[in-house]
């Protein structure tokens, strides 16, 4: 690579360049003063992209790599390829992929932090078992054991519970950090064991968007793609003329794909509107920032729909040909009185602004909607997402390049399929209500039955709401297996601890770009200590179970978990051969590409699908490969059309208290008196997740507002900055160095009322408990709202390196009672609170 080329793709230049461009382009009025102050004389100025015009790394005998390996960053859904430079088997540098037009050679600050997971003195290096101390306490004592002993202990416990008729008392909860396909192996093990409680990360993350997409269009996936569609040779999302962002801060959560949209916007002049209660770096790039009251996005969208429908701004031809339920929607909006004026009273967004937003979206085509956790983490998440699918459908912005409903994190092609199980498996009971937050309820109350043993691949003591109750539950849990990289908070509650490999220590696929794109990644370095990839652990556990099972012959387990699957190339080939519409995604093809390949992709000659539901031969071929019943269908619903309302949808959703045509409701701790939700004690079959139970609900009761007499503010949680990705980056040097303090964003007027100054140590209290942080006065947030970063925790030992505080989980403040009873999403985006100086 030339010196000039390296300057363009080096992580050093890219990180600084992103910082400079963010400071220089401030579209929102509230940022003008901050930007002007930052550039005033006497302030630090933006530094050059490099400290010298010469690159002295080139031709350095010590720093020239002897090998470059193609891996991938696993810290967000931008799916950046990392070209990892090795010298004598050690990582010496990490660069981006210059030949991927979406990545454009760059990555954000987190890319090199992948290395800090490998070379980290806090890594777990061997299996351990509890030998003393109370669960959850820092005095817990563990001693190293062999893998054989660890897996034997786990298998013995699971079989003992099964033989006692308690297979359903065993549960697993996966995590987004898992290598793709591990969840399929976990599900296979649980089927052989007879437990229904194999759950995934979705209810903590972003399941609701995928659920809504599936119910309206047929597939639960991000609808459009970044870059050129290989089937049509046309630009997809980069061709959007209108970008509507709701509850997504992509500058910090998806920086590389967001940068791609911004580069495209220079050419298209697309309008960017960001809807968020606080001004984020994403909002700073917008033409318009709109700040509704937290947890009221559903009202805003209903008001937009009303204006579009009643003013004939919809695409009549598309609706007539492809949409079922439009007339029912129109009548529902009118009879409910969901006018922009009504929405304005609920959201605090002026009616005139709602009308203008609706008109701009409806009249500009193609228009793309983007959403993320800001919508998912609401108790009305499924219904809000459904209304957003209606918005795209009635304006004809579905199944076209540059449009769609791009609800983030619904990236993988459903469950990666394995061959049919050999032998007869036990029957299963119905699963507990969807979402790991119900684990604590089951353990403590025993309703509808009690969990006895849990395995996790995440960190429930930080991820779950109502942390104090979760702590209580895991202290009394009979048997807990923690798998992870570090001694996170949850590890102190474990009976068995299993060390896993980081992304650079395994060959696998990284299937996390939101547009269904998949990359092959090579192994960079050998596993640290005795750590194992997660899929190895489940294969080995099956073989350990085979040795101890008195009910089934050894081949019951061994034949269903062949040793050959430990070679990920063999395992991936098995997935490709058995998963619908994946026949073209072979390891060889993925390895040869500099750009990722998008699913569905049924044959090696198929280009992959960028725009779902596109009226094009490549889509119809892929759709029929997904299911023979889809032959000739454009949309993969039972009718082959977009389904807003059908009697069947209505009947199914009514079983759990909902409707195919959502009515507005919100969290009872939103300021004001609004329709809200009541949870009954009745457990019914979940219509969205029929393998599980859920609480039945009643909608429409008006909230009293009493809680705000003592707790006058609304709190929202989220990612602290672009430096962090959930809790794992808190175990890196860069993460703790750059953002090791929990900075709570408070409007200056709210801070003044509480006697708080910028930089003060503060206490945030809710009816559930209290946490500490540092006040960050920020005019770019609603006066009635504070933002409290999540994923700080009391076990993050990297704080020792920098003298930063140890913090309790923000989820102490969250009430676990309030969740979306369809998707399982927890309501992290609103809680009543107050602040005071510490």
Automatic annotation (TrEMBL):
The keyword Lipid metabolism does not apply. Belongs to the prokaryotic molybdopterin-containing oxidoreductase family. Its main location: other. The keyword Iron-sulfur applies. This is Molybdopterin-dependent oxidoreductase. Keywords: 4Fe-4S, Iron, Iron-sulfur, Metal-binding, Oxidoreductase, Signal. Pfam families: Molybdop_Fe4S4, Molybdopterin, Molydop_binding. Gene3D superfamilies: 2.40.40.20, 3.40.50.740, ADC-like domains, Dimethylsulfoxide Reductase, domain 2. Residues 66-122 form the 4Fe-4S Mo/W bis-MGD-type domain. It is found in: Cell envelope. Its cofactor is [4Fe-4S] cluster.
């Amino acid at each position: 690579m030339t010196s000039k080329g390296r300057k363009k793709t080096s992580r050093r230049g890219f990180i600084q360049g992103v910082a400079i461009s963010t400071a220089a382009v401030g579209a929102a009025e509230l940022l003008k003063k901050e930007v002007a102050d930052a550039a005033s004389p006497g302030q630090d100025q933006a530094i050059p992209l490099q400290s010298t015009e010469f690159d002295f790394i080139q031709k350095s005998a010590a720093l020239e790599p002897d090998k470059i390996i193609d891996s991938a960053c696993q810290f967000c859904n931008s799916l950046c390829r990392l070209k990892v430079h090795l010298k004598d088997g050690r990582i010496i540098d990490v660069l981006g992929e210059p030949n991927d037009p979406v990545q454009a050679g760059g990555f954000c600050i987190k890319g090199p932090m992948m290395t800090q997971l490998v070379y980290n003195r806090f890594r777990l290096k061997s299996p351990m078992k509890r030998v003393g101390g109370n669960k959850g306490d820092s005095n817990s004592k563990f001693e190293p054991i062999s893998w054989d002993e660890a897996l034997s202990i786990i298998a013995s416990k699971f079989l003992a519970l099964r033989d006692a008729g308690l297979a359903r008392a065993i549960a697993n909860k996966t995590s987004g950090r898992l290598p793709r396909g591990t969840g399929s192996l976990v599900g296979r093990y649980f089927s052989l064991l007879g437990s229904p409680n194999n759950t995934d990360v979705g209810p903590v993350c972003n399941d609701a968007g995928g659920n809504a997409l599936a119910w309206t269009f047929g597939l639960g996936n991000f609808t459009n793609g970044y870059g050129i569609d290989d089937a049509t040779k046309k630009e997809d999302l980069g061709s959007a003329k209108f970008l509507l962002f709701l509850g997504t801060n992509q500058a910090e959560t998806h920086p590389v794909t967001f940068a791609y949209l911004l580069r495209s916007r220079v050419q298209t002049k697309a309008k960017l509107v960001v809807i968020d209660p606080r001004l984020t770096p994403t909002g700073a790039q917008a033409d318009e920032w709109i700040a509704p009251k937290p947890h009221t996005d559903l009202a805003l969208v209903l008001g937009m729909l009303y204006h579009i429908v009643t003013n004939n701004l919809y695409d009549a031809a598309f609706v007539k040909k492809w949409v079922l339920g439009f007339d029912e929607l129109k009548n529902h909006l009118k009879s409910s009185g969901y006018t922009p004026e009504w929405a304005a009273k609920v959201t605090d967004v002026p009616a005139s602004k709602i009308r203008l937003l609706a008109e701009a979206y409806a009249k500009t085509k193609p228009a793309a909607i983007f959403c993320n956790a800001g919508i998912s983490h609401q108790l009305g998440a499924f219904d809000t997402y459904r209304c957003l699918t209606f918005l795209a459908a009635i304006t004809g912005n579905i199944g076209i390049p540059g449009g769609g409903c791009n609800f983030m994190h619904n990236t993988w092609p459903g469950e990666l399929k394995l061959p049919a199980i050999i032998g007869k498996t036990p029957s299963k009971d119905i699963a507990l209500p969807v979402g790991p937050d119900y684990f604590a309820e089951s353990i403590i109350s025993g309703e509808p039955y009690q969990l006895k043993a849990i395995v996790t691949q995440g960190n429930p003591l930080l991820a779950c709401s109502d942390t104090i109750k979760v702590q209580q539950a895991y202290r009394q849990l009979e048997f807990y297996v923690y798998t992870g990289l570090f001694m996170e908070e949850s590890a102190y509650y474990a009976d068995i601890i299993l060390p896993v490999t980081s992304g650079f220590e395994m060959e696998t696929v990284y299937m996390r770009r939101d547009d269904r794109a998949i990359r092959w990644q090579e192994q960079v370095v050998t596993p640290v200590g005795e750590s194992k990839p997660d899929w190895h652990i489940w294969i080995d556990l099956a073989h350990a179970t085979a040795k101890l099972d008195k009910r089934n012959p050894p081949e019951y387990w061994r034949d269903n978990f062949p040793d050959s699957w430990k070679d990920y190339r063999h395992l991936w080939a098995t997935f490709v051969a058995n998963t619908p519409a994946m026949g073209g995604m072979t390891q060889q093809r993925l390895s040869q590409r500099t750009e990722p390949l998008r699913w569905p992709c049924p044959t090696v000659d198929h280009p992959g699908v960028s725009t779902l539901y596109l009226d094009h031969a490549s889509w119809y071929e892929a759709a029929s490969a997904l299911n023979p019943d889809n032959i000739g269908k454009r949309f993969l619903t039972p009718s082959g059309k977009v389904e807003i309302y059908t009697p069947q949808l209505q009947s199914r959703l009514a079983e759990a208290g909902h409707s195919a045509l959502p009515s507005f409701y919100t969290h009872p701790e939103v300021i004001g008196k609004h329709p809200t939700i009541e949870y009954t004690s009745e457990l019914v079959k979940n219509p969205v997740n029929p393998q599980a139970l859920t609480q039945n609900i009643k909608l429409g009761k008006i909230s009293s507002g009493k809680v705000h007499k003592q707790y006058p503010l609304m709190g929202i949680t989220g990612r602290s900055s672009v430096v962090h990705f959930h809790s794992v980056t808190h175990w890196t040097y860069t993460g703790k160095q750059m953002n090791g303090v929990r900075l709570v964003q408070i409007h200056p007027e709210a801070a003044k009322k509480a006697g708080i100054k910028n930089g003060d140590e503060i206490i945030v209290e809710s009816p559930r408990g209290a946490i500490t942080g540092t006040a960050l006065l920020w005019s770019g947030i609603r006066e009635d709202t504070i933002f409290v970063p999540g994923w700080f925790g009391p076990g993050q030992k990297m704080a020792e390196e920098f003298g930063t505080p140890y913090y309790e989980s923000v989820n102490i403040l969250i009430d676990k009672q309030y969740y979306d009873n369809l998707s399982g999403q927890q309501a992290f985006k609103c809680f009543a609170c107050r602040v005071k100086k510490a």
